[in-house]
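Summary: Need help interpreting a holo structure output

Steps to reproduce:
1. Submit the protein chain below together with the SMILES for NAP.
2. Request a joint structure prediction with the ligand placed.
3. Inspect the structure token block that comes back.

Expected: a single structure record containing both the chain and the bound molecule.
Actual: see attached output.

Input attached:
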Amino acid sequence: MASFFLEFAAEQRLQLPLLVTPETCSGKTYIVTGANTGLGYETSKHLVNCRAKKVIMAVRNLEAGETAKAEIESATNNRGIAEVWSLDLSSFDSVKSFAKRVNSQLDRIDAVIENASVAHDRWSTVEGYEASTTINILSTFLLAVLVLPKLTEVAKRYGNLPHLTIVTSGVAFTAKEAMDRIRDNPLAGMNDPTTTDMNKRYPLTKLFQHYAGRHLATLVPVSKTGVVVNLVNPGLCKTKLSRNSKFSRWLEIYITNLLVGRSQEMGSRPLLHASMAGAESHGRYVSSCEIKEHQVPEWVKGEEGRKLGERIWNDIAVELEKIEPGCLDRVLRH
Ligand SMILES: NC(=O)c1ccc[n+]([C@@H]2O[C@H](COP(=O)([O-])OP(=O)(O)OC[C@H]3O[C@@H](n4cnc5c(N)ncnc54)[C@H](OP(=O)(O)O)[C@@H]3O)[C@@H](O)[C@H]2O)c1
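--- attached output ---
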């Protein structure tokens, strides 16, 4: 335990490389979800600063998005690059409309950075599921499957190795016991307030992202699609992620952040790295700007974990098919 914390603290203090430059961004289009604040904001700001061709800032609150865009334009002095598009992950219709707009209005796409998430520790429901299950899991993978065929098409046209980067977290690996309680019926378990302690809800949604993201990657190999699907951990960062948490939880995160937290800007660097990492990052865990599969526990990446990932993916897939019939066939047709 002590060695784990020492490794974590040392990693948190690393000065991470900033890998985007005007050369790497030239002519490229990026989509960043949850772009109005936190890591999504800093990621968008770097991309605008490096004069990408287009940066779609996907936000649930358009006014907040326009304010963020104005701040970025004024700080970078680069106008006409960022666009604010509406995306509310608590509404499946909103996700479908957003994906439709992406698929019809964008020509080339270089990366979709699925950054938006919530950390709820109080029970509420949207779209028939506990809210963070809807936002962090179902809508995140709904958006993934709705844009993957477009990314494959873009890859074939431009040969540009587009990325679908899911922003997850290392805290997921603290949720083993919570997962063990629902492993026989994972998605239904997420929708039962008696099976999952809300304190473990956020790590558990992030663990679902690992399992489902790793399995999805096996279904869409880069060799066939020309698209990289990877999972990135930004590390612990001083953002407002815990704003909806109970006071005790908020305080714990606040103090840990004071000791070892990364700045928002530093936390955006792993996202930028993952969105341009090589094909070897496909289906892998990327952290501190490196592939860190050795940090993924055996119970996630080993044979048992692979089986559970398939089970979790199948649960999610059933729901996605109800929301958008035929969406999975389109992803698998590559
Ligand atoms: N901060 C950390 O220490 C840390 C550590 C590991 C992983 N992460 C991950 O990093 C990512 C970014 O987190 P952050 O720290 O930057 O948190 P944040 O400051 O709370 O930003 C989260 C973003 O997600 C958006 N969002 C929330 N619900 C949404 C919805 N229903 N539809 C669309 N967008 C929604 C938020 O929009 P509003 O402003 O409108 O709420 C905000 O733009 C998350 O995936 C998080 O799990 C963070």
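--- end attachment ---

Reviewer comment: The beta strands are 29-33, 54-59, 82-86, 111-114, 125-126, 129-130, 163-167, 228-233, 285-287, 290-291. The first strand starts at residue 29 and ends at 33.
Status: needs-info
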